[in-house]
Prior knowledge:
Blueprint: E1 3-6, E2 9-14, E3 28-30, E4 36-38, E5 46-51, H1 58-71, E6 78-84, H2 88-98, E7 103-107, H3 113-117, E8 121-122, E9 127-128, E10 131-135, E11 141-146, H4 156-166
Parallel strand pairs: 5-6, 6-7
Antiparallel strand pairs: 1-2, 2-8, 3-4, 5-10, 8-9, 10-11
Amino acid sequence: MSTVTFAGNTMHLAGNLPEVNGKAPDFSLTDKDLALRKLSDYAGKILVLVCVPSLDTPVCDMEVRRFNTEAQALSKDVAIVCASRDLPFAQARWCGAAGISAVEALSDYRSGAFGKAYGIYVQELDLLARAVFVIDREGILRYRQLVPEVANEPDYAEVLSCVKQLV
């Protein structure tokens, strides 16, 4: 079982991180209209899955705003999705207030199945750990980054380097 820390306290993650260069686990996440989105919806695109505990926290806010800004310079063949356990209505409200237009917010609120399939479901908090996954056009996981301390931001340069190599 993997762990991360949150404010220095050890937290346990359910599931296993998917293997790099293996098939990315399928998922069902809920969009702002309560429709389900699946991995296959992004076939033919490079998918960046930005996973955060909650958009209504300062670090998550900064992270998604940063990815929204970075998306402007990326190819239209790149889709950036932010996954959290926030309700879809809260995600839509936050995205509207923050002016997020290049990142799609999707929710794992129904069961946490996405978090468990990707090995980032924090059992003690019922939230997702901070992580980033890059999936290529064929659905192969090419990069993963589990941020060891949930309160820290990811290494943006590493993520963007991987994305640019795949474009």
